[in-house]
């Protein structure tokens, strides 16, 4: 009888088989993932859900008992239905224009290669992170009777609000659709062309259907941003074209009608929930499409405007993008820049010299430069918080659990983290003042703490960090994680060796975007900034509200400083990710 031999299982250097190592590390990995989920959820629960619930609860139960009579009163007012209608109308029209105008820009900046493309990408993003009050003043200057576009007669009209909303959200469409477009395999369109289809027919029949998930995702996010716009609508629309967002502010700060503000907050949350569901479904379809693309990377094509290789689509894309860039983006910013050099005595640098002072009587308590330093310090803290919390969420949501319950939990976490994008920053800031006087019954008043400002700004920036990093992490092949775990790699080693090399560039983009958003955040900061330590957007708003040409000139000069800081941050971010394929999905 031939003796049988048993092949020994391979062991690790410590004498432990890979399977045993895998099982023994399962509990540790479970703890790690539980902590990665619990930390950001706890942060958002304390600094987002709790303040919002406090302000809504104060409105619904002013005396500690549930009272729903406010619903009947608010919905019985014709003003309420007019405001809801205006909110939906402005968001819908602005979204349509942003998508139509953004598609040529997405093609030009992400499918074509030409000198200066990186700088142009950074310039396109600047409006998205500018303070809303600055943009409102810029558009009012452009559309005023004596402004460059005063002949249109749009000052204080519905069209002015829509134009400003498109100004803000143009970059969302360009980056979201453009990044996805750059990852598409061009061979399908080339095959259609080789079969005799003209360029426009190949685009309509092949490329446009492939872009539909990205377009739907961008449209849902733009609608969300437009429906919750605050500063632009307040400055340009006033009471005549107010939205639910501005009405919450009016009812809260001017009339102190918390029940009415609470009802409107519920209406806004419902709109936000619908937009987030639509965006989530579009994103799911988009990710499935990404998984179907060929493994080889695609390269941008040279811009062809003349000669035998001239493409009419390139000419059209360049013409539309140039018109949008010059009239819609550059003209308002240029108007602010030019007017910042106009002083009482003529043209000069007087407004910039005045930034080292506190302005006119009772204007400011600190200089603009001191406020700029405060903004930079706060932005650093807010960025650190947002990147840590958002990175943990993106890491958890990027996993693909095998169980249906696990997949639902991941989708729920993703949706919950997106809620700060749609909830009024005014509501969050005011909720801080209401809820953090005695948080959770603890005898501790946090309302005067400077820590609340970066915390509030981090709450606003976390969803953007998640949307930037998540697509890259989801693109990592899960078999790499499984192989590393079977071989005994600890969770930290898996992250360092598998995920980090791919996510590093997108994380740099997330840092830049969070930093820029923190620099320009105004809604919540206006409630929390102390008079002796305001941020730069708060100072600009105070100067705009003070009478006198000198104060207005200082506000415009300070706006130019803030715009330059933002542009510098975004330009550095673009250079860090230039040439990388990790942000191919272009998720904003």
TrEMBL record:
It comes from the Bacteria. The keyword Repeat does not apply. The chain crosses the membrane at residues 31-61, 81-110, 122-143, 158-182, 203-236, 256-279, 315-338, 378-397, 417-437, 449-470, 506-529, 552-572. Residues 84-275, 372-573 form the ABC transmembrane type-1 domain. This is Iron ABC transporter permease. One of its GO terms (biological process) is transmembrane transport. Keywords: Cell inner membrane, Cell membrane, Membrane, Transmembrane, Transmembrane helix, Transport. SUPFAM superfamilies: MetI-like. CDD domains: TM_PBP2 (cd06261). Belongs to the binding-protein-dependent transport system permease family. It is a multi-pass membrane protein.
């Amino acid at each position: 009888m031939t003796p049988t031999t048993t092949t020994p299982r391979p062991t690790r250097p410590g004498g432990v088989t890979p399977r045993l190592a895998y099982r023994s590390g399962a509990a540790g990995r479970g703890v790690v993932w539980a902590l990665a989920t619990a930390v950001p959820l706890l942060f958002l629960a304390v600094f987002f859900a709790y303040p919002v619930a406090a302000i809504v609860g104060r409105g619904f139960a002013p005396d500690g008992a549930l009272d729903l009579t406010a619903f009947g009163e608010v919905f019985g007012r014709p003003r309420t239905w007019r405001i809801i209608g205006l909110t939906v109308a402005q968001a819908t029209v602005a979204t349509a224009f942003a998508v139509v105008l953004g598609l040529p820009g997405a093609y030009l900046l992400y499918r074509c290669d030409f000198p200066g493309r990186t700088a142009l990408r950074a310039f396109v993003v600047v409006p998205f992170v500018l303070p809303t009050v600055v943009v409102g003043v810029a558009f009012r200057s452009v559309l005023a009777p004596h402004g460059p576009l005063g002949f249109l007669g749009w000052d204080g009209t519905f069209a002015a609000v829509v134009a400003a909303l498109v100004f803000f959200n143009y970059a969302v469409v360009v980056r979201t659709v453009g990044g996805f477009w750059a990852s598409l395999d061009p061979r399908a369109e080339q095959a259609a062309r080789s079969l005799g289809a003209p360029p426009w027919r190949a685009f309509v029949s092949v490329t446009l259907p492939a872009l539909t998930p990205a377009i739907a995702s961008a449209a849902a996010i733009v609608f969300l941003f437009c429906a919750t716009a605050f500063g632009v609508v307040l400055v340009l629309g006033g009471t005549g074209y107010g939205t639910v967002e501005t009405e919450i502010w009016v009812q809260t700060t001017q009339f102190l009608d918390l029940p009415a503000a609470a009802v409107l907050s519920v209406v806004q949350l419902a709109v936000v929930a619908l937009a987030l569901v639509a965006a989530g479904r579009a994103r799911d379809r988009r990710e499935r499409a990404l998984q179907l693309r060929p493994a080889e990377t695609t390269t941008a094509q040279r811009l062809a405007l003349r000669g035998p290789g001239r493409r009419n689509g390139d000419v059209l894309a360049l013409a539309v993008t140039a018109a949008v860039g010059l009239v819609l983006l550059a003209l308002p910013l240029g108007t602010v820049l030019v007017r910042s050099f106009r002083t009482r005595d003529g043209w000069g640098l007087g407004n910039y010299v005045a930034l080292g002072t506190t302005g006119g009587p009772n204007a400011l308590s600190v200089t603009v430069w001191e406020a700029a330093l405060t903004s930079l310090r706060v932005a650093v803290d807010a960025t650190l918080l947002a990147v840590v919390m958002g990175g943990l969420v993106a890491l958890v949501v990027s996993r693909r659990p095998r169980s249906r319950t696990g997949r639902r939990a991941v989708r729920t976490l993703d949706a919950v983290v997106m809620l700060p994008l749609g909830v009024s920053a005014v509501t969050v800031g005011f909720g801080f003042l209401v809820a953090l006087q005695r948080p959770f019954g603890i005898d501790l008043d946090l309302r005067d703490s400077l820590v609340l400002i970066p915390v509030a700004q981090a709450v606003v920036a976390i969803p953007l960090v998640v949307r930037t990093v998540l697509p890259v992490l989801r693109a990592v092949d899960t078999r790499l994680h499984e192989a590393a775990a079977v071989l005994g790699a600890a969770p930290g080693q898996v992250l360092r060796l598998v995920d980090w090399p791919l996510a590093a560039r997108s994380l740099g983009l997330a840092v830049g975007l969070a930093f820029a958003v923190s620099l320009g955040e105004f809604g919540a900061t206006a409630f929390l900034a102390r008079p002796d330590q305001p941020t730069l957007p708060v100072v600009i708003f105070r100067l705009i509200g003070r009478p006198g040409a000198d104060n207005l000139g200082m506000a415009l000069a300070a706006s130019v400083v803030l715009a330059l800081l933002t542009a510098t941050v975004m330009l550095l971010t673009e250079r860090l990710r230039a040439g990388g394929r990790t942000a191919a999905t272009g998720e904003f």
